[in-house]
Amino acid sequence: MLTKDQIAQRIAKEVKDGQYINLGIGIPTLVANYIPDDLDVILQSENGLLGIGPFPTEDQVDPDLINAGKQTITMTKGSALFSSAESFAMIRGGHVQLTILGAMEVSENGDIANWKIPGKMVKGMGGAMDLVASAERIIVAMQHCSKNGQSKLLKSCTLPITGIRCVDMIVSDMAVLEVLPEGGFKLLERAPGISVEEIKSKTEGKLIIEGEIPEMNFAN
Amino acid sequence: MLTKDQIAQRIAKEVKDGQYINLGIGIPTLVANYIPDDLDVILQSENGLLGIGPFPTEDQVDPDLINAGKQTITMTKGSALFSSAESFAMIRGGHVQLTILGAMEVSENGDIANWKIPGKMVKGMGGAMDLVASAERIIVAMQHCSKNGQSKLLKSCTLPITGIRCVDMIVSDMAVLEVLPEGGFKLLERAPGISVEEIKSKTEGKLIIEGEIPEMNFAN
Amino acid sequence: MINKTVKNAQEAVQDVFSNAVLMFGGFGLSGIPENSIQALLAMNINGLTCISNNAGVDDFGIGLMLQKRMVKKMISSYVGENAEFERQLLSGELEVELIPQGTLAERVRAGGAGIPAFFTPAGVGTEVAEGKELREFDDKLYLLERWLKADFAFVKAWKGDTAGNLIYKGTARNFNPMMAAAGKITIAEVEELVPAGELDPNQIHTPGIYVQRIFQGKNYEKRIEQRTVRK
Amino acid sequence: MINKTVKNAQEAVQDVFSNAVLMFGGFGLSGIPENSIQALLAMNINGLTCISNNAGVDDFGIGLMLQKRMVKKMISSYVGENAEFERQLLSGELEVELIPQGTLAERVRAGGAGIPAFFTPAGVGTEVAEGKELREFDDKLYLLERWLKADFAFVKAWKGDTAGNLIYKGTARNFNPMMAAAGKITIAEVEELVPAGELDPNQIHTPGIYVQRIFQGKNYEKRIEQRTVRK
């Protein structure tokens, strides 16, 4: 099983030079640590910044400069600040090319549920519904199963959904899967030491397996 | 009959302290010359400026600073620059309190026609349709009659209209008239030397005359 | 130039009334109108509808207004980190309307810009879409969303001038510019108030036309929710 | 930081194709992308749809593209001061769609912001309303208007950096920011191009995300239509 950092590391391989990217809270935030230095990408923070830099040193901490997870941040060279309306104009208008976010459930037709568990406290969807309804490409970082072993890759979501037919790829702790436009999880890679059979048994939704499924490679 | 400058001078009396005002091209532009110095008002230019100042001196001329009539201008202290979208957000959102513009025809229910003469060259409506659809208060500066003596204050407009039920007041070369919400031109003042009878004969739309109609006073 | 300066927060907020609709700029605790919130807390009003991306924390920001039971309804996108909020919500004392963050930003922008309704893709197929018109444009589905306006909007800027022009700093800008435009009465508090003419007209984020009252704020705490530093 | 610099206007516009939809920033002749227009004039393309508030004058700006018969359709709010334009329009060689200026600005803004349609009061009861959905909100009538997008958007800024961030000057800003966001490929020309990091992030008018190519412009004429001076 992959660690959270390994999930982030694997997702980082999907990043392409020149992309504008929105990273959600949690594992997605870790992806920034694994983007190769030779790629020029720009991270968007939906509270109004293009060009998120590293976390600040103690003396750089500025309460007027935070990310969407309310963490203190810095800005890279060439960054730009703007309002929330402009920020979501960017997102909704399809200018942010890649969105990486967490999920509680994904269905085989690409629906995602990640904002609400009925009966439990509701915190709100924040920017997630806008992001999933708008981004060109959406990659989900998630655990393949719940704590009691139930698959989270489903035929259809059981939780209130965040967006429909929007997820393009999933990197779970067990596998990398593409969500096909016609429906179905196409298995692309296995986590080291995880068999295709195990993935099959832990995927409730339609799993598509074609040919040999390689193990993920964390070499480079 | 009032001169263009006198029409502008009379309209200037309608201006209230603290107002944000949009002045159209032509006579409305002249209104700025007659606003009393003790009133603080801010002139909006729909191409992206709040705080139009006087025309520039020769050495102040800046091609990057023009008004909606494409004339070179200056900025007053405390002015602000913005995009056309923000400018019309201001106008449409009702933040510009007073709009003064010219008209070819006004109907007794407050419709205005000022952008197109069929068969002649069409130049376009520019910002006029947005302004008349949005402003809290609209004052029209116009000639009471066409060159061949036809009334331009009509039962209903004959030219393609710019906006419906929007004109609040008319200052023509013959009279000051309020357009009543229920319809009709209520005569408020006569131009010096012009009789009520003359105004009656030159107003095709419903004219409402109550009591004595005073002459305009240009004293102060 | 029109002078919109008022003496302080107390004077600025004095006519806020019970059951009014209020907007508050800020994202988390960043860029919130701290002084105005303090002044509102001293008033004997309640039944308020508060439109704000977040609801503060238990002991700071709008959270304090919740503690004082001044708020009838919150319209927000994310309301975590607030135990009293949770208690009031579960007990039914507080109404909550949750809105996708981009839809919230755009609805407020629409309120200021005179756009009564617009179509957006956020929330299609979710419970957010319930009761809303759904329409297809160019092979994609969208929801019709309405504008939001307020009786009073409270915003916080970095610099401002006496004509009401505002400049924000960093990501403390967030919802402030749209809310400034969507308030019938907009009250701006600034860290530095200067005479009209001292700010570069080309750098104004909120033109003064949107601001009815402005005052020099004081004692900004600027609390940080997630202080995160480099190792 | 992503570097979007291209050598010059020729390189920037080289893939513009016949029958493309183009947007041009500018109000009158102020803030128009002079260099890009010159480079387009040297190309063998036609059938263009041009979205621009105005159509230039006979011998400057988009007027020159009309002279060369490159334009099939103009979408504008005001097209006076142009005899060749008038001739082509009356002879039926040129299609023209006239749009209220605020509606044009908002339709372009909507194109960049992913809003496929919105309601606006401008044009209700006029010929602009023909064929459009009319709807009442809060006792006022509004028209449904659609977004506008372009294959290429040409904008002109005062300063820009290699990441595509732009700062405009004076009223030369006008339609440029919205058009920058509404172009599939946005080409920015600037009076002064600086390395990323030299512009204050807080003063950027157009974030670089909207700009695909940027170049240092040259030989700006900045013609004035109505030179007006104080007596």
TrEMBL record, chains A, B:
SUPFAM superfamilies: NagB/RpiA/CoA transferase-like
Organism annotation: Belliella kenyensis
Keyword Zinc in annotation: no
Pfam families given in the database record: CoA_trans
Molecular function as annotated in GO: transferase activity
Sequence similarity: Belongs to the 3-oxoacid CoA-transferase subunit B family.
SMART domains: CoA_trans
PANTHER family, alphabetized: KETOACID-COENZYME A TRANSFERASE, SUCCINYL-COA:3-KETOACID COENZYME A TRANSFERASE SUBUNIT B-RELATED
Keywords: Transferase
Protein name: CoA transferase subunit B
UniProt key word Transferase: yes
From TrEMBL, chains C, D:
Keywords carried by this UniProt record: Transferase
GO molecular function annotation: transferase activity
InterPro entries membership: 3-oxoacid_CoA-transf_A, CoA_trans_fam_I, NagB/RpiA_transferase-like
UniProt-listed SMART domains: CoA_trans
Stated name of the protein: CoA transferase subunit A
Organism of origin: Belliella kenyensis
